[in-house]
Amino acid sequence: xxxxxxxxxRGKSYxxxxxxGILARSLTAAGLKPSIAYxxxxxxxxxxxxxxxxxxxxSDLRRxxxxxxxxxxxxxxxxxxxxxxxxxxxxxIVILIGGASGVGTxxxxxxxxxxLGIPSVIGTDSIREVMRKVxxxxxxxxLYESSxxxxxxxxxxxxxxxxxxxxxxxxxxxxxxxxxxxDRCLIEGQSVIMEGTHLIPTLLKDKYLxxxxxxxxxxxxxxxxxxxxxxxxxxxxxSRPTERYLKYFKIIRMINDYMVxxxxxxxxxxxxxxxxxxxxxxxxxxxxxxxxxxxxLEGLSEEDMLEEEA
Length: 310
Ligand SMILES: Nc1ncnc2c1ncn2[C@@H]1O[C@H](COP(=O)(O)OP(=O)(O)OP(=O)(O)O)[C@@H](O)[C@H]1O
Ligand SMILES: O=C(O)[C@@H](CO)OP(=O)(O)O
Fold this sequence. Notes:
single chain; 2 domains; P-loop_NTPase; phosphotransferase activity, carboxyl group as acceptor; 13 helices
């Protein structure tokens, strides 16, 4: 790489060479098609070169991109771009993607992370592994099962739907770990995406649901056949055995319905995951709306966002 000829982008605490790829990615997150986003990133790079700019502050670059988008009649994209740059650069945001096994939480979480440039995605399955190391099987036997088999080790006196009770008991300890990670991210100012089947809306403490920096989205697949097909697809490329998920499919569907029901109860948006690109767009729209509220709560106008140091 010829650093001498590169344009340097200067942030508050670091410098890096101008990257058309990074700029294009933030433009796609704001709603532009990748091909157009890349062209605009290229145009801006050329513009800076023509002006013989060697070093540019991030806030200057942000301003230029914003006005360039407006000049090309991408007003809505410009607004979203500004909002995203502001929030991701300066405020921690925790995105929770819940959903029953196989509806696609990890796939969608990674797509959103790459579109937004959030470097950290944590699966609740990993938190479950950590919890298994610190809590004995004797103390919480459900933790050692899967979400859909935990009912097998319930104590006999549990009332109600035993499959759902098992799932709840299985998820409780995991949720304690999830809440710990959220606390840490909010305190440290780090953004993170957490995904998995253990994110039960009615069991997560209300203080997280009410926090403007926490955005919770529930994924679902309404069509049973489509949901089943996802396990066949996964079985071909991973070591997770399709037969196991098919054997417990009815319970997994029950968990899916329960997740949707509890999400609705708590006012959490439910997104159907049929086509990846559409699911991601729907999720990004939901997240953007939440960010607008967050920025409005802080009383920031567009002018303030343009002026804020990056
Ligand atoms: N919109 C989609 N279209 C087609 N295939 C998809 C879509 N979303 C996910 N998949 C595929 O479906 C399978 C299941 O998805 P994934 O592993 O993301 O599920 P999950 O909800 O994370 O499950 P678990 O909680 O069991 O880990 C994977 O093979 C994935 O590539
Ligand atoms: O418990 C579950 O539903 C799944 C979640 O990924 O995990 P496993 O099937 O590996 O136990």
